[in-house]
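Blinded run. Sample ID left blank on purpose so nobody reads anything into the name before looking at the predicted structure. Input follows.
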Amino acid sequence: MNTPTDLSADAVEKVAKALNGLLADAFALYLKTKNFHWHLSGRHFRDYHLMLDEQSDQIFATTDPLAERVRKIGGRTLRSIGEVAKLQTIKDNDEAYVPPVEMLRELMNDNKKMVAAMRKAHEVCDDAKDIASASLLENYIDDTERRTWFLFEASQQEGGNEA
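Blinded prediction complete.
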């Protein structure tokens, strides 16, 4: 496909692959965050419920810009849930019950994994001289680090700083 980009075909392929991996993980993390949001219980229900709702909205808000960035440079983006399942590295959690603190810790670790993947994708974008994609990721890295921090702090045992 001929698109209005000056990136090489190789650069487009590499950037699209990196961004599609992030997109698949964003969908997986979004659904897991919503899953935990819907199935929370316990004395901190309201606080955790609201925090996870806010975080899931933030994660979902990354999906369209990531996909559109792939399309802007002439790449092909995800087309199905099946493709998401093939590419995601964030593991699903289908357990019938997960204690609230374990939910927060699992999401914290998933967000940390997402940040690491974003940093790798940023390197791919830098190597391809795709400044716009790299710039997009910089804001998402900061947002994901913030989610990780909030999940870390919320998962701490009351009265101490041990996890």
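Unblinding after everyone has recorded impressions. The radius of gyration is 17 Å.
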